[in-house]
C-alpha cells in the first residue's frame, strides 16, 4: 500500500452510527428487516454514499446492491469484492453486517483516491450489500449471496414469503430495489469484515481474527397442528395442544446440545402461535429449529435423531406435524492460501491475528468454492450479538478495515490469480 493512504480514524464507526438511524430503536439498536421501508432508506443512503465517492451503483434481480470503483479500463481480470449486509434482526444491534458494508465503502473510496493520484491497478473493486443475509423476514438466510453464487435460483428467492405472505419480489418492488441490472462477474477474491459475535478475541486482547472454517447448520421449518379449545373446562387428556408439542421440541433440542456442548448448538429462534390468546389452547404453532455443528457427520446424525423426536412428540401430544422447509449448510474450510495471505498482510501492519472458527453464518460462506474467500473478525465487546447492546470499539473497526485496505491494494494491483502477493 502506498504511503499516504490509510483508514481515517473512526470513519467506519461514524458511518455505522449514521446508518443506525434507519430503523433505530430506543435502546440504541436497529430493526431493519430485509426489504422493509427502513431497509429501503438505508439502501438509498448507501447508493448516495457510493456515488458521492466515485462508484457506479447497480442492483440485480434479487436486490443485491453493488458499487463499482473503476480502477482500470481493462476488464480482462476479474474484480476484487468486499461487502456484507444492511438487513437486521427484528431487535438487533447496529454493528452486525453494517460494519462490513461501511468498511468496504471506506476501502473503495481510498482505492479510488489512489487511482486519481496516479497509482496503477489491474483489477476493479466492488462494494456489495447482500440481500436477506439474516433470514429474519424471508427464509432461508443468505438468499442474495446464495443466488449470486449459483446455489439458489432467482425465481426461488423472489418467491420466498414472509409470515404475512408477502413475497421477496413484492417487497423489493415496494422499496424500489427489484433490480434489472446484470450481476457483476464472479470476483477473483471476496473478503468480508464482521464483528466476532463471540468473546475469543476480546479475551486474548487481540484485534484481528481470521476465520478458518464454519460450522454446519441444519434449519427446519415445522408446523404443529392441533385443536383449539378452552383452557378451563377442556380435560387435559382431551387436549391436542400445538404449543405443548412445540415446547417439548424446544426442550428436546436443548437437551441434545447440553449432552454435546463442544460440538453442538441447537435452538428455536422463531415461533408463531395461533391463536395467541389467553383462555385458548393453540391449534397451530410454526417454529424454526436450528442445529449447528463443526462435524458434518455428527450434524446429520443429530438431525435424524431430532426428526425422530419431532415425530414422537407429535404422536404423544395428539397433534399433526408438517415439515415445510429444510436448509442444510455443511461445514467447510476457508481457502488456506487466503488465510495465509491475510495473515501476512496483518503481520505487515503490526497486527497479531488469531485463527478461529465461525459458528454463525455469513455471506462469505456462500462464496466458498466459487472464488477465493476470506472472513475477518474484530472483537465484539462482551461477545454480545443480535442484541441492541452489541458494540465494537472504533479502534477495532479501524484495525479490521486497515487489514482489508492493505489486502485490497495488493489484490487490485496484482495480475496474478494464484495470489501473487509479493
Give an overview in words.
By secondary structure, the chain is an alpha/beta fold. The chain has 2 domains: 11-215 and 331-412, Aminopeptidase (3-Layer(aba) Sandwich); 216-329, Alpha-Beta Plaits, CATH 3.30.70. Helices cover 35% and strands 22% of the residues. It contains 12 helices and 14 strands. It has helices at residues 11-19, 37-52, 96-116, 143-148, 154-159, 168-175, 200-204, 242-259, 296-317, 336-348, 363-366, 394-412; strands at 56-59, 65-69, 80-85, 125-130, 189-195, 208-214, 216-225, 229-230, 265-274, 280-281, 284-293, 320-329, 353-358, 373-378. The strands form 3 sheets. The chain has an 8-stranded mixed sheet with strand order 1-2-4-3-5-14-6-13. It has a 4-stranded antiparallel sheet with strand order 9-11-7-12, with helices on one face. A two-stranded antiparallel ribbon has the order 8-10. α1 (11-19) crosses α3, α8 (242-259) packs antiparallel against α9 (296-317) and α10 (336-348) crosses α12 (394-412). The longest helix is centred in the C-terminal third of the chain and has 22 residues, at 296-317. The radius of gyration is 23 Å and the shape is elongated. The N and C termini lie close together (12 Å). The model has no long low-confidence stretch (mean pLDDT 96).
